[in-house]
Amino acid sequence: MTSSPDKPVRPWRLATRLIRGVTGVVIGCLAIVALMTAGFTKYEITERLDDSLQEVGERLQFAVLALNQQGPGHDVAHLSDIKPTSLAYQITDTAGHVLLRSSNAPAVRFSVPLSSGFYMLPQFRVYVTPAAQVDRFILVGEPRLHRTQATNKAILIAVLPIIGSVPCIWLLVIWIVRRGLRPLVRLQDEIRERGSGNLKPVPELALPVELSTIQVAVNSLLERLQKALSAERAFAANAAHELRNPIAALLAQAQMLRSTALRKPSGAANANPESDAAQDTANTRQRLDALISQIHRLSRTVEKLLQLSRAVAGTALRRDRFDLLPVLHVVADELDRPDHACPRILIETGNLTQLEVLGDLDAAGILFRNLLENALRHSPQGSAVQVHVTASSALPACCVADTSAAADQAQAYEHSACVTIQNTCPPLGPDLLNRLTDPFVRGNPSTEGSGLGLAIARTIARQMAIRMDLFSPIPGQDDGFMVQLTFQKAPPRA
């Protein structure tokens, strides 16, 4: 029976299921054994007590002889140390008159037939046997209280060790199951460490035959994955090298052709500006400008595709510690020179002079380049792109859409650093905002771009375990676009 695809499968632990299953089966078997033991013990105790009644009845034959010698009038035998659980007896005649009885026996004959056998009364278990004299009968009664107490004690003595062994069995099952699953736990820990840039084969762990097959399969898969990633990275690097050179050469030739076209028509233009040669030269210049523009666009698209290929190939899976601030400043200086009169990228770091995070330095540079390029491309001319960098034990207000949730999220951000990138633009719809990180999806189709910047950023963020959130409009404003990045801070140095 397969589970419904819409119903989530609850996680379960193999050790817990084994412990519960084995313990349940063992306890069930012990319960059956305890019930059988209790029934057998009750049967044996009843049989032994009945034998005792019969033996007492046979030994009372001498009392009949003594009764004949003493005559009537001695119908009660007073014995010392009589208890409620002591045996009681009566000697009667055929008419049912009690001739002799023990002090704890009723004065009236037990209401049982005067024929050999065992009879059960509300308070006594009675055994009847004829005496050696024909007209005499011996009735021996055992109080049912004594029989019940004896039976219960015997059953308790027989069953108590079985019940007492249940906790011991439970602890032994836990110990055996955990010890048996210890190789599986080691294999689980080794497999959990794989990924995030660690594709080393699983070492020898002295696993049983059932698990050694899994180890071999995992190592084979890791080896194939390592080869595939290496081949993809090599392809991306070689493709970047091979494509940049012809595109650069094509661009250089187009620029040289344009400069040549600009020099040729100068004399003809002065002689006759309305001539066909001047018109052809203007058309040629226009076409060359379009060609150069398309070559630039092709170069940027190829660069983005290669970046996306590198990101998908796992270039950001490394977990090194590096300083985030120099990477951010270098990328910002490349995109917006600091000597400009009106810089378009404003970075606010507060009192931070160093902020070490975990990840890959080169991948972080690609991430910031794509996000800053996207912000510059989609913001109006003259507007600035604002970058805020914070690192504290609590979530900064600029990084939360709903400031009332800051207290609830502070614990999750205790070891994190927050970077936000904001730019001015018309607000985006929720549907478009959700699809904005898909390849070739652009927020404004009329704006020049390939639609790959946010897709590359999202891929790198996932590989570096960076939380990336998109907001439009900016929280607290009516327009704008904001990207929030939450990095994992590096642990303090020893």
Poorly predicted tracts of residues: 266-271, 393-408
Name the CATH homologous superfamily of the largest domain. Histidine kinase-like ATPase, C-terminal domain
Cα separation of the termini? 54 Å
Strand order of the largest sheet: 1-3-2-6-5-4
Number of separate domains: 3
CATH hierarchy class name of the largest domain: Alpha Beta
Assign a percent range to the helix content: 40-55%
Beta-strand content bin: 5-15%
Task: Describe the protein's architecture and organization.
By secondary structure, the chain is α+β, with helices and mostly antiparallel strands. It has three domains: 14-173, no CATH class; 209-309; 318-488, Histidine kinase-like ATPase, C-terminal domain (Heat Shock Protein 90, 2-Layer Sandwich), CATH 3.30.565.10. It has twelve helices and 13 strands. It has helices at residues 14-59, 61-70, 144-180, 182-193, 209-263, 265-271, 276-312, 324-335, 361-378, 406-409, 430-435, 453-463; strands spanning 76-77, 88-93, 98-102, 117-120, 124-130, 136-143, 320-323, 345-348, 356-359, 385-391, 416-423, 467-471, 481-488. The strands form three sheets. Strands 1-3-2-6-5-4 form a six-stranded mixed β-sheet. A five-stranded mixed β-sheet has the order 8-10-11-13-12. A hairpin with a 3-residue loop joins strand 4 (117-120) and strand 5. Helix 1 (14-59) runs antiparallel to helix 3 (144-180), helix 7 packs parallel to helix 12 and helix 8 (324-335) crosses helix 9. The longest helix is centred in the middle third of the chain and has 55 residues, at 209-263. It is rod-shaped. Mean pLDDT is 78; it is low at 266-271 and 393-408.
